[in-house]
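Weekly structure sync, notes
Attendees: PL (lead), two postdocs, one rotation student
Agenda item 3: pending single-chain targets
PL asked that the sequence for the first pending target be pasted directly into the notes so everyone works from the same version. It is reproduced below exactly as submitted, 314 residues in total.
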Amino acid sequence: MKRLVFGLILLLVTVTVSAQDTILIKLEEPTDGGLSSGVGNIRGWAIASVGVRRVELFIDGQYSAELPYGGERADIEIAHPNVSGSINSGFGQIFNYGLLGAGEHIFTVRAHMNDGQISEDTATFTVVALPKAFYPDDERPNFSNSSVAIDQQSGKLSVYDVYLSSGEKMNFELMWSTPAQNFAMIGAWEGCTGTLTDQLDVDLVTVTARSISVVQVDGVVQESSEFELNLLNETGEDLTLLSVRISDSEGDLARMDTSSLEASGEIPNDSLYTINYKVGSEGAKGVLSAEFVLGFQGQCFTRTLEFFNTSSDS
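Predicted structure, written out during the meeting:
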């Protein structure tokens, strides 16, 4: 009788353990709610106590491909030491996100287990894309007339006036991507070639500027000097500030700390739109200027304003 009872207990324990089999899958890149661009990775991991047979990729709800599975993941083995094969649980492949086109997309990875069970994970993300999915060496972008601005607080890099082989002028924004461990493109928009006077009366867009705190030595505005720009939209039209560039007479944007600069947004009618910023660590030389890129009726227009002269000491 004791042996029979012991056998029943052992059977119950075995069933309980079997019911707690571990089945997990994680899509790490692209990240849910994130941005993707250019040639990057699709990667993640999947584990199961019964073993993983294959991992499939679905793009926007449609089957795309079977992903290579079995990459070494020491971190997953440490996190799940009791799951057999967790050391070789990685999946991934190289992927050109430009092929998807700009906008929102959905990736779903589906793991099929050896016992027929299925588990999946999904990421909804936004693709930042150029007009073409791939540019070979002989069509690489032309940066000869480009300029760069650095937001020292966020780390965002803005690259202006980049010409593509098709003749299009583009502007780009880059940010450090932890998953990709490199700088990823987070924004791309067509540059403007028109002028504000093409369709808007310049007098109806009032721009004022003032210095909040200025230290100037030998014609150089010193670090941390602060300025303020105000835009007043008196057009009665929907007007949007697409971007703004601050530079000194040498055209050096990297010297400007734009950490408090509002780079885009609607300019309300009959109310001030304020932009604050301060001079970066190398100071600013000569005449400071601000170039505004404004959106109006689906088009964009530029206006440049010179607003601070450092030619004499103050």
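Discussion points:
- Residues 137-190 form one domain.
- The mean pLDDT is 80.
Action: rotation student to compare against the earlier draft before next sync.
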